[in-house]
Amino acid sequence: MDEVSIIGLDLAQNVFQIHGAGHDGRMILRKKLNRSRLLESFAKLPRYVVAMEACASAHYWGRGIGKFGHDVRLIHPFYVKPFIKRQKNDAADAEAIAEAASRPTMRFVGIKSAEKQASSMAFKVRDLLVRQRTQAINALRGHLAEYGLIVAQGVRHIPRLDELLATYPDLLDLARGLCQNLLKHVEALSEQIVELEKGLRMRARKDQVASR
Fold first, then answer.
1. What are the pLDDT tens digits along the chain (212 aa)?
2. Do 48 and 96 share a domain, yes or no?
């Protein structure tokens, strides 16, 4: 292990592949580790450059491995793909990661803190809820159009639907009830979106980078 200069780590759900390369690029170490033993194993190793693809869970493992003094580097998968020499598998991926990370001109992805990940998650959840609301509104407008009730596009026109659904004469009771359920779903999504946006604005005011 003293000759190893860089470790390529292929992340997985349960079994992780490690590829250790020397200064000349030769393979010195190749082994598999279970998820439960990964951090324990890196805690016992000398400090190395540890490279991973910037994919799901990479920031979590990057923070964990970095606590033991290793120089953790995340690489966008796009930059790893050209270095895969043979049929794609875990061992080949780990080797390609190590080789890509050893390139002096390689670009790396910064490891996000747990706080940054939570903030990023808030943006993603908001986007998901907005898409779901748009889908629900489009479905509601489409169903109502089949009964001759045309509703203008846009969230701002939704509040009027309560009255229209209650008074429109051509809606059958079953259709009216289903549309009211959709409307309640849209309103609930809107409330969640408003709460998320409040939190985002509060965090933005406290963050120096966002303030600038």
1. 458 889 999 998 899 999 999 988 899 999 999 999 999 999 999 999 999 999 989 999 999 999 999 999 999 999 999 999 877 888 999 999 999 999 999 999 999 999 889 988 999 999 999 999 999 999 999 999 998 888 888 888 888 888 888 888 888 889 999 999 999 999 999 999 999 999 988 888 877 766 66
2. yes
Domain of residue 10 covers 6-101
Residue 107 in any domain: the answer is no
pTM, two decimals, is: 0.79
Q: How many domains is the chain built from?
A: 2
SS (HEC) of the chain: CCCCCEEEEECCCCEEEEEEECCCCCEEEEEEEEHHHHHHHHHHCCCCEEEEECCCCHHHHHHHHHCCCCEEEEECHHHHHHHCCCCCCHHHHHHHHHHHHCCCCCCCECCCCHHHHHHHHHHHHHHHHHHHHHHHHHHHHHHHHCCCCCCCCCHHHHHHHHHHHHHCCCCCHHHHHHHHHHHHHHHHHHHHHHHHHHHHHHHHHHCHHHHC
| 186 & 129 share domain | yes
